[in-house]
Specification:
Length: 260
């Protein structure tokens, strides 16, 4: 399917690895000029090399900046004043418990997983509306709909982003600007490697058993492939997806037990 986004410009936040990198590759395969982002310049440069090798002939730019700071966001918008596609993303807080979630932790979660996305939307959406094309995709988490105890901090910050995105989406969709959220569960990225290592330490099992246990929590009985997630992102950014906005799209191997 031709997605109708060839020649568009995209910024993909926190895209030197994992889900952001997968989305960047899928967009580039559709002819989108993609700007990669990360805090570590060396790691970001290596990611750009890998991306160019994976999608020959594609155009990848980079901007090294910390999304969680005002200075970092200003560096991004100075390097890239206008985009047609904005994919927001950032690593979530570490798992924890109620006694861990003091004021500093609560504020930190919002600064990482809600405020940067909203600030970038505030900058880029007005131009999208003027040009009458825009796609915003927020990478959140399946925990938004199905919070677990230890992931409560991550779920709460991402739920806040979900709520404000829904509010904004109803205002801007008339100008062909859509805002949707992707809710991943157990995609095979470095985040799942972190979770596997954590399980290994806690339960005293080897890596293979840790990964098997993680996969067993998914209805599909496997981890999701990054390219599956990235291609879903690309479709949500497509011309064909212009009538879909304000939605939470679960990429979770069929694991959600709810109807909505």
């Amino acid at each position: 399917m031709e997605l109708g986004i060839q020649g568009r410009r995209a910024f993909v936040a926190a895209s030197s690895q994992g889900l952001g990198f997968a989305c960047a590759l899928s967009l580039a395969r559709e002819g989108v000029r993609v700007t990669l982002n990360g805090r570590d310049e060396e790691k970001l440069a290596k990611a750009a090399e890998l991306a160019r090798a994976a999608v020959p002939g594609a155009a990848f730019d980079v901007v090294a900046a910390d999304l969680t700071t005002r200075e970092g966001r200003e560096r991004i918008t100075a390097a890239l004043p206008h985009v047609d596609i904005l994919v927001t993303n950032n690593a979530g807080p570490a798992p924890g418990e109620l006694e861990d979630w003091d004021e500093a932790s609560l504020v930190g979660a919002m600064q990482a997983n809600m405020i940067p996305a909203v600030e970038l939307m505030r900058h880029y959406i007005p131009g999208m509306r003027e040009r009458r094309f825009g796609r915003v995709v927020n990478i959140t988490s399946a925990m938004v709909k199905r919070p677990s105890y230890e992931m409560g901090l991550s779920a709460s910050a991402r739920a806040a982003l979900t709520a404000i995105s829904k509010s904004i989406s109803k205002e801007v969709v008339a100008d062909n600007v859509t805002i949707n959220n992707l809710l991943p569960e157990r995609i095979d990225t470095p985040r799942q490697e972190f979770m596997a290592q954590r399980l290994m330490e806690r339960e005293g099992v080897d890596r293979g058993e840790a990964r098997r246990r993680i996969a067993s929590t998914i209805a599909a009985k496997r981890l999701g492939r990054p390219e599956e997630f990235g291609d879903t992102c690309a479709f949500v950014c497509s011309a064909q997806a212009g009538y879909m906005s304000g939605q939470n799209i679960q990429v979770d191997g069929g694991s959600s037990e709810g109807l909505l």
